[in-house]
Sequence to fold (524 residues):
Amino acid sequence: MTFKEEIKRRRTFGIVSHPDAGKTTLTEKLLLFGGAIHVAGAVKSNKIKKSATSDFMEIEKQRGISVATSVMGFEYKGYKVNILDTPGHQDFAEDTYRTLTAVDSVIIVIDAAKGVEAQTRKLMEVCRMRNTPVIVFVNKMDRPSRDPFDLLDEIEKELNIEVRPLSWPIGNGPDFRGVYNLYEQNLYLFSPNKQVVEEGISLEVSDPNLEKEIGESMAINLREELELINGVYPSFEEAGYLAGKQAPVFFGSALNNFGVRELLHCFLEIAPSPLPSTAEERQVNPEEEKFSGFVFKIHANMDPNHRNRIAFVKICSGRFARNTNYKHVRLGKQMKFSSPTAFMAEKKSIVDEAYPGDIIGIPDSGNFKIGDSLSETEDLHFKGLPSFSPELFRYIENADPMKSKQLAKGIDQLMDEGVAQLFVSQFNGRKIIGTVGALQFEVIQYRLLHEYGASCRYDPINLYKACWLEAEDEAQLADFKRRKHQYMAHDKSGRDVFLADSAYMLQMAKESFKGIKFHFTSEF
Ligand code: G4P
Fold:
């Protein structure tokens, strides 16, 4: 196979959802259809059990399992599919956002009874930042569900994207019989089966056997609804989908294997192969000969006996080869990797080569930070790995004056891993930790003590959001910084950040300083 063909056959994507909508189940069913596993339940999921929410050590243990399932690759019908798993636990939302920077497309799972939920909205906003193509899978149709037309309206409105159903549910709840495939114009009836995939019968909507298979009233209903869909919704436009403007919608029940085949087949056909990546210097095309890639995730093993880390590298261009010298751009030094791992289904193995769209895991003893680039020759700095404003903030203080060096080093390294964000107040020089969930504060305290021998304590600080500033009027920005000195901080790369203590304060600032734009992300 040629280098170009290797790239064209790759599909690297993420599955995201509000917790409990069925992301884990769908991931597993895709692997099942893809033949990567043979029985459902074989994949240890990245999902953190609900019962463990207050016990972070338990969560970390479960996260340890997740290294193997962070990327699930499999071969299907000539395609190489790479599914990037994202943590379901909301406290790790930042991890999810970063993972989304390494995918070429996304499948959003929505619960058919609940519709669009809070986390779905947030994830969509992240997709929109890079115009990532999105497919929606409406799951759990085997339960009493909302009307599919209503759901489509809600998705369109709440996620602010044009929708086009490409499969259509036949009944719902106990009467759910399967889905009509609008993309292939046929019907597959499956018998519900949680474990394995059985081929169903294939019918066209005009087939007189339809009545026999699904009953007269359902057949009439289906024909009417299909007519309505074609009248009401725009036709599927591949260009619109690829531009992130139109979302194809599929219905089904992941648990029962309904609608998953329809989703997978259409996905393989329409989802993009690896797309160009944007570096500060220029656009980098996957077909370029020279290897380049970036680190989007670092996974630290908290087991004290195996304190290694794995840096996950997304390959942007060229062919990656084992034991070959590449430049670590930030450190300006050549490095070669003797045991890069690739991920196939639930297994992880050492690879000799990898292609754009692939993710490799590199064992790391502290050389990598999130956002670091590796490159064969050129100095490239990949963009698209923004920091997002944290939701919770606390001052972090040294609780053991003898260990201040260890504390500083520990904080530094944990921030490089992306556990949380550090801000330094310009007013009093105090360090402020910002996180998405309360759990990270505990994780940081524990890891500082056990890995660096440093003790910290937290002091409360009442903050609402961190805002990165963009000045349209430089003089006004200087004036703003002077007047709000008390609320100004530096982020990890030394950029100015305004720490607003309330939504009201931010609103007032926006009104008084119209020449400044306030962003909740570090890239805009
Ligand atoms: P998540 O990763 O998005 O958080 O969701 P996950 O797949 O774990 O699914 C959440 C719950 O919803 C699970 O039940 C799962 O079995 C169920 N589920 C997923 N898809 C469907 C579906 O199509 N129909 C129905 N009826 N249920 C579905 P649980 O009881 O929380 O966990 P488990 O004990 O079954 O694993």
Observations:
- The chain has 14 helices and 31 strands.
- The first strand starts at residue 10 and ends at 17.
- The two ends are 39 Å apart (CA to CA).
